[in-house]
Design brief:
- It is built from 5 helices and no strands.
- Helix 3 packs antiparallel against helix 5.
- It is elongated.
- The relative contact order is 0.16.
C-alpha cells in the first residue's frame, strides 16, 4: 500500500511528521508574506500558526481587492481577450493568491503553535 503523505492536495509538500517541518513552515511563510507581515510576526515572536493566520487574512483581502477590480473592469465593458490583455498582471496575481491560499489551507491545520 502506498505511503499516505497527508491530506488531498498535499502533493509536493513535505509531511508534517518529517524532520524540519517547523523550519520549512517558517521559511514558506516568510517567502510568501509581504515584508511588513514578516517583520510584525518576527517582532511579536509569532508562532507559525499565528503568522499563517495573518497571511491568510492578507491573502483573502488581496483576493477580494483583485476580484473587485476585475469585476469593475467587466462592468465597464472590458471582457474576453481585451480583459486578458489589459489585466494580465492582475489575473496572474489573482491566480498566485488563490494558489497560495490553497497551500495555506492544506498546511494550516498542521502549522506549529510554537
Amino acid at each position: 500500500m502506498p505511503e499516505q503523505r497527508g491530506p488531498r492536495g498535499w502533493e509536493g509538500l513535505p509531511s508534517p511528521d518529517e524532520p524540519g517541518w517547523a523550519g520549512w513552515c517558517r521559511h514558506w511563510l516568510a517567502a510568501h508574506s509581504p515584508t511588513t507581515l514578516v517583520q510584525e510576526a518576527t517582532a511579536r515572536r509569532a508562532s507559525p500558526r499565528s503568522h499563517g493566520r495573518a497571511l491568510w487574512r492578507h491573502l483573502t483581502d488581496r483576493r477580494e481587492v483583485l476580484e473587485h477590480h476585475l469585476a469593475q473592469e467587466q462592468a465597464d465593458g472590458v471582457s474576453g481577450r481585451a480583459l486578458e490583455v489589459r489585466e494580465a498582471d492582475h489575473l496572474q496575481e489573482l491566480d498566485e493568491v488563490v494558489d497560495l491560499l490553497r497551500i495555506l489551507e492544506t498546511i494550516g491545520p498542521h502549522l506549529p503553535e510554537r
